[in-house]
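[Automated response] Your request has been received and processed.

Submitted sequence:
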Amino acid sequence: MIVLDTHVWVWWLSEGYSFSSTVQKLLNEGKTKHTIYVSSISVWEVAQLATRGLLQLTMDYTDWIAHAESLPFINFVPIDNHIALKSIQLLPPLHQDQADRIIIATALTLGTPLITKGEKIIRYPHVDTVW
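Generated structure:
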């Protein structure tokens, strides 16, 4: 079981990024076992970035997200009360990007590693990251 940071989710589905062998192995296993998790905040981030012209996808972002939702190996995790509260209660040191905090809280709640290239998240000692 793994949680994907937003950029990893986009890069992986776009098939235009070469991941490390460790990350690729986790993605392949997760795909086979249907144990890949994406926070619903990542849907919000993709929509925000696409709307502002900061993310170019091969199709309209609503279609891209609908396609991602149809994939049986991706599980979207809603932001429930527990995750929302946990994102506020994360121990320092951590930056204040709310989307990152929710993604971290999601990984901690599920008790699973987070695949991310985000240096600030990787340096955060309270979440298990893979890159």
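Summary generated for your ticket: The chain has a mean pLDDT of 96. The longest helix spans residues 21-33.
If you did not submit this request, please reply to this message.
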